[in-house]
C-alpha cells in the first residue's frame, strides 16, 4: 500500500535512486498558509551527512506542483516533488542483503529495483515528512504539538515513557535529538560510533509525544487511534515493536495499580506530576486535560497516564505517548555470507552509504506520521455528531 489516511490521505511515490520522491495529499482543506521554511526545517532533521547518519546528503529542494495558490492551499490535491540529486548506484551489487527487503521484494515482484533499496529504502520517508509538515499546519490551528526523540541506543536507555514538552524541545537542540540530558546524548553517540568503528550498526528506540490533543479524537473498534498509530509506526522501515503509554510493562501489573487515577480539575492550571516507579523524569508535566463539562470548566486528568492518552481507541485528553523500537541497520560493512540474485552464496563486504543507527533520522518521520494521523482524525471527527453539523451549516 502506498497510500495512508482515512479522510486526509497521502500517496507517496518514487524510488531511492529514481528521478524523484514525491507525495500527493488529498482532501487537504483550503485556506491554509503554507510555511515553506517549516517544511525545510523538518526535512533537514531527516537528512544525513553527519558522523551518526548516512553520508548521503541531498539538497532536497521542494517543488510544489499543485494545490497551492499564492502560498495558500486551494482544496485541490497537493503534489510535492523532490528530485534525487545524490545517487551512487554503482555501490549496489545484485545481492540479497540479509534482513533488508531485497529478498521479499524479489520474491513478490521478480522485477526489483535494488538500487539503494528502490521503494523499500527509507528515502521514501521524505514523502512522509512532507505530508506531516502539511498536517502540522492544520494541527497548529488547534494548538496540537507533536515531538519525537531518541530514548535508547543499544542497551543504553532513558527511563520512563512520559516526557515533558520541554524535554522533547531540549532534545531537539542536541546533536542527535536525544532525550534526558547532554550526558545521555554523549553516551548514545559513543554507542553509535563504537558500532560504526566495528563496521556494524546498532538498534534504537524513539519516543513520540503528542501534546494538546483534545479528548474524543479517534474511531472506535476497527480503526482505533492506537491501532492506527501502531499500524503507521510498524509500517515504517526497521520498526519491530510499538508501545503505547506504559506499553508491554503494563502486563506485569495489577489493575489496582495500573488503572488510570482520574482527578477533577476545575480550571486549566498545570499540575506538576511527581515521578512514579516507571517514570523517573521528575520534571514531567502532564499538561493536557479532557474537558468533561464545558460550562463548569471541569476537567478530568489522570495521575499516571499509563494508557498513553488513549482509552477505547479514542483520545482521553492526556498527552499521547508512543515508543518505537528499531532494529539495527541491515546494511553493514562487516563481511557476511550473502546470496546473490542467482542464489549463489558468497562472502561479501558491502560498500555504499548507510546509517549506523536508523533511529537518529527516524525521529522526524515518526513525528510526521503522528501529526498526519491526528490531523486526519481531527477532520474525521467533524462529522461525528449532529451538533458539529449544525454549527457549520446553521451557525448554532
Ligand atoms: C531512517 C531510516 C534510515 C535507514 N537507513 C538504512 C540504510 O542506510 N541502510 C539499510 O540497509 N537500511 C536502512 N534502513 C532500514 C531499511 O530501510 C529496512 O530495514 C528495510 O527496508 C527492510 O524493512 P524492515 O526492516 O522493516 O523489514 C533505514 C531505516 C530508517 C527508518
How do the strands and helices of this protein lay out in sequence?
Blueprint: E1 3-4, E2 9-13, E3 20-26, H1 36-46, E4 62-66, E5 68-69, E6 72-73, E7 78-83, E8 95-96, H2 102-109, H3 125-141, E9 145-153, E10 156-157, H4 165-173, H5 182-197, E11 204-211, H6 225-234, E12 239-244, H7 255-258, E13 262-265, E14 271-272, E15 285-286, E16 290-293, E17 298-302, E18 310-311, E19 314-315, E20 320-326, E21 336-340, E22 345-348, H8 359-381, H9 386-394
Antiparallel strand pairs: 1-2, 2-3, 3-7, 4-7, 5-6, 8-21, 9-10, 9-11, 11-20, 12-20, 13-17, 14-15, 16-17, 18-19, 21-22
Helix pairs in contact: 1-3, 1-8, 3-8, 6-8
The structure holds flavin mononucleotide.
Flavin mononucleotide (FMN) binds next to helix 8.
GO molecular function, one term: chorismate synthase activity
Organism: Campylobacter canadensis
Pfam families: Chorismate_synt
Structure characterization notes:
The chain has 396 residues and is an alpha+beta fold. It has a single domain (3-394), classed as Chorismate synthase AroC (Chorismate synthase, AroC fold, 4-Layer Sandwich), CATH 3.60.150. Residues 270-288 have low confidence and may be disordered. The protein has helices at 36-46, 102-109, 125-141, 165-173, 182-197, 225-234, 255-258, 359-381, 386-394; strands at residues 3-4, 9-13, 20-26, 62-66, 68-69, 72-73, 78-83, 95-96, 145-153, 156-157, 204-211, 239-244, 262-265, 271-272, 285-286, 290-293, 298-302, 310-311, 314-315, 320-326, 336-340, 345-348. α1 crosses α8 and α6 (225-234) packs antiparallel against α8 (359-381). The strands form 7 sheets. It has a 5-stranded antiparallel β-sheet, covered by helices on one side. It is built from 9 helices and 22 strands. Bound molecules: flavin mononucleotide. The site of flavin mononucleotide has 20 residues, from α8. This reaction introduces a second double bond into the aromatic ring system. Its EC number is 4.2.3.5.
Amino acid at each position: 500500500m502506498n497510500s495512508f489516511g482515512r479522510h486526509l490521505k497521502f500517496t507517496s511515490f518514487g524510488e531511492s535512486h529514481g528521478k524523484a520522491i514525491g507525495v500527493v495529499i488529498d482532501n487537504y482543506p483550503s485556506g491554509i498558509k503554507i510555511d515553506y521554511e517549516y517544511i525545510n526545517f523538518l526535512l533537514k532533521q531527516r537528512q544525513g551527512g553527519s558522523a551518526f547518519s548516512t553520508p548521503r546528503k541531498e539538497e532536497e529542494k521542494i517543488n510544489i506542483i499543485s494545490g497551492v495558490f499564492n502560498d495558500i492551499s486551494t482544496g485541490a490535491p497537493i503534489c510535492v516533488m523532490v528530485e534525487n540529486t545524490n545517487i551512487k548506484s554503482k555501490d549496489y551489487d545484485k545481492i540479497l542483503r540479509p534482513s533488508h527487503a531485497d529478498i521479499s521484494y524479489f520474491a513478490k515482484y521478480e522485477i526489483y529495483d535494488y538500487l539503494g533499496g528502490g521503494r523499500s529504502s527509507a528515502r521514501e520517508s521524505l514523502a512522509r515528512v512532507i505530508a506531516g509538515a502539511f498536517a502540522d499546519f492544520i494541527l497548529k490551528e488547534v494548538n496540537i504539538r507533536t515531538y519525537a526523540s531518541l530514548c535508547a541506543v543499544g542497551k543504553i536507555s532513558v527511563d520512563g515513557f512520559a516526557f515533558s514538552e520541554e524535554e522533547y524541545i531540549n532534545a531537539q537542540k542536541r546533536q542527535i535529538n536525544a532525550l534526558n540530558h547532554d550526558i545521555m546524548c554523549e553516551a548514545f553517540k559513543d554507542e553509535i560510533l563504537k558500532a560504526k568503528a566495528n563496521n556494524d550498526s546498532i538498534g534504537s528506540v524513539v519516543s513520540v509525544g503528542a501534546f494538546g490533543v483534545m479528548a474524543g479524537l479517534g474511531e472506535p473498534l476497527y480503526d482505533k487511534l492506537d491501532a492506527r498509530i501502531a499500524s503507521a509506526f510498524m509500517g515504517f522501515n526497521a520498526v519491530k515493536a510499538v508501545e503505547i503509554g506504559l506499553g508491554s510493562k503494563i502486563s506485569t501489573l495489577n489493575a489496582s495499580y495500573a488503572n488510570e487515577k482520574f482527578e477533577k480539575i476545575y480550571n486549566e492550571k498545570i499540575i506538576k506530576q511527581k515521578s512514579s516507579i516507571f517514570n523517573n523524569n521528575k520534571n514531567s508535566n502532564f499538561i493536557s486535560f479532557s474537558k468533561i463539562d464545558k460550562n463548569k470548566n471541569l476537567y478530568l486528568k489522570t495521575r499516571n497516564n499509563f494508557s498513553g492518552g488513549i482509552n477505547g481507541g479514542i483520545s482521553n485528553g492526556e498527552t499521547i505517548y508512543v515508543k518505537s523500537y528499531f532494529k539495527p541497520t541491515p546494511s553493514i560493512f562487516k563481511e557476511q555470507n550473502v546470496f546473490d540474485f542467482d542464489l549463489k552464496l558468497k562472502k561479501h563486504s558491502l560498500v555504499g552509504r548507510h546509517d549506523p543507527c536508523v533511529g537518529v533520522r527516524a525521529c522526524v518521520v515518526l513525528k510526521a506520521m503522528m501529526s498526519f494521523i491526528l490531523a486526519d482524525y481531527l477532520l474525521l471527527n467533524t462529522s461525528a455528531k449532529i451538533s458539529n453539523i449544525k454549527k457549520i451549516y446553521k451557525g448554532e
